[in-house]
Amino acid sequence: MGEETGRKHAVVQQLAADGRDPPSRYVAREEDRPIGDSSSPAPPRSGVPVVDLRRATGHEIPEALLDEVMNVSRAFFCLPIEEKQKYTNLIDGKEFKLEGYGNDRVASDDQILDWSDRLYLLVQPEGQRNLALWPETPASFREVLHEFTTQCKRVANRILRAMAQLLELDEDYFVSQFDEKAITFARFNYYPQCSRPDLVFGIKPHSDGSVMTILLPDKDVGGLQVLRDGEWVDVPTIPHTLLVNLGDGMEIMSNGTFKSPVHRVVTNAGKERLSVAMFYALDPERELGPAAGLIDEERPRLYKTVKTKDYLAVLFETFAKGKRAIDWAKV
């Protein structure tokens, strides 16, 4: 399933290696530009949703595994461009597909591009994995990603059960929505250093379209920011922790009780940054809507019920335009 775009752009890693200022296609509008860069973050504030893996699961996921996830990620992005292009997300240089290595979809000639490269892979259902796009180098990449997928799923299920209890729903309400056809994507993000971090975004402001996102951030280099009360707040880097981010899907399913936060990534003038995200979404053919138990006279329905695949289609369209898909789903 591809999409004709006719717009091929160099991977950002190549642009960064030249050491020149970012091309104009990457420069944000003046009123939207970040202030400073992630090498000099603002003091962290309390309340940023950081979930320590061990506290979240009740048992340890080995720190060695988390380190290995980052190691294989870095090793992949350090490969020669010719090797990485074996897994490209462009067919014949112009037909975009969601999975693979490269940039996000470019929808228009005036779209402002993000200062990042990514490798995007479907990891669940396991039977639908396109292993032709799973790197063979480093040799342990596939094994490490499979194990990380398994461990993160356990974390996700535990959090989903806790959230259902908070809403006084059946403990397995959210977990039961994720049947054998539910999808999980892994996204490996690479943010090269940038000579002008005041002009570009690693990833533009957005909210996730998933029900939940579990992120393994770089343990040494910050850059993730969350919008709170109209201000951008730096998310602190804490080694061997996961960040749990609720997506638009959860905002819809909870009828607005839980919010899908707007966040962005800023770049760094002196250091590259890596992160790995797991996006959890329902079966594309399954309906996504508020739980019936959360709708009554005092809590009117705030969101439509839509097919997951329709919501995700709107998501990818609006993301390219710097808009939010959640607005489309509101009643």
From TrEMBL:
Any one Gene Ontology molecular-function term assigned to this protein's record: metal ion binding
Region spans: Disordered:
1-49
What superkingdom does the record give? Answer: Eukaryota
Is the Iron keyword given for this protein?
A: yes
Basic and acidic residues composition bias: residue spans: 18-35
Return the Pfam families for the record: 2OG-FeII_Oxy, DIOX_N
Keywords tagged on the record = Iron, Metal-binding, Oxidoreductase
Annotated Fe2OG dioxygenase domain ranges read 182-282
In the UniProt record, does the keyword Metal-binding occur?
yes
Which InterPro entries does the entry mention? Answer: DIOX_N (IPR026992), IPNS-like_FE2OG_OXY (IPR044861), IPNS-like_sf (IPR027443), Oxoglu/Fe-dep_dioxygenase_dom (IPR005123), Plant_2OG-oxidoreductases (IPR050295)
Q: Which family does it belong to?
A: Belongs to the iron/ascorbate-dependent oxidoreductase family.
List, alphabetically, the PANTHER family matched: OXOGLUTARATE/IRON-DEPENDENT DIOXYGENASE
Q: Identify this protein by name.
A: Protein SRG1
Species annotation: Ananas comosus
